[in-house]
Amino acid sequence: MDGPGPRKVEFTGPRFAAAAAEQDFRRFRTALASDHDGPVPPSHPASFAVTLDAAIEESGLSLDRLRHHLAARGVTLSRSALSYWRRGRSQPERSASLEAVTHLEAVLSLSPGTLTSQLGPRAPRGRWLGRPADRVERRRLWPELRPFSAELKPPPDGQLAFWSIHDRVLVDDGGSERALRVHLVAEATMDGVDRLMTYHQSDHPLPGEPRYQGVRFARTGRVRVDRASGMTVGELHLDRVLAAGEVTAVEYEIVFPPGERIDHYHRRFTRPVPEYVCQVQFGLNVPRRVRAYEQRGLSGPRHPGAPLRIGTTHAVTFAARDVRPGLCGPRWEW
Fold first, then answer.
1. In what order do the strands lie in the sheet containing 193-201?
2. What structural domains does the chain harbor?
3. Could you read off the pLDDT of 193-214 as tens digits, one per residue?
């Protein structure tokens, strides 16, 4: 999902709890990070940064190559300034910077005004309290997504800020994942948000095609599956077009064919999320032990968390507040 997608779903260092965490949505204020441009006002959605980040990622250009193209147009822009802009840590304000943005639109093959129209009012000088919002590029957490992107054209990562995500994973008697039920609440960070993407990747090749069902407050669009890599990408069209600041809640379920036994489930986060809850419902056979864990990236070290107890209903609950980008979820031993 833009932002999230399961086990393969879409963290570092949340505070683990054994029950569902209360909703604690915080707006992330960004600090002054450039000596020549201003911070993003805390009341203004960082749609400029979201759009710029997505355009750079889609272009395939590194920041150094982007600077090279700008230099060919007579525009000098530091690498740090580009990095700060795309991360939402500062925004262009000075006349030279605003002119550079118009050239960025041309270099990135964007329509005139795509970026400049999202800058909003000039920010007051000074430093905003709070840390900059973290992020991980979508392609870092979903390297197998690239073949799907050309056809599905995923919307900019970050167009939705997730308030909470609740996963319920159903594991059958043989230890195979049979279904994933998701309930999420999200706020639009820009105008015109009309869809979200869901991503799921199994550890093993898929023996058959997963299917979507139980979609509420949205409708299923295109679904693409790569059985060899275990990748499933689904498009959900929202029941209305969201303006910046509007909130929606969506539910959906993915049903999987019987497969190999699994020993963990995680969600992959490209952006911070205030609350994440994952309940794993086991069948007749339950694991010997379950423990929370987290990773900064797919190849990063695994950091074990607190033990998790399985209840009399054969279910275990993993919950985290203030989840940062990376991976987190429960692991178990059979």
1. 193-201, 231-242, 218-226
2. 15-26+137-333 (2.60.40), 30-132 (1.10.260.40)
3. 999 999 999 989 999 999 999 9
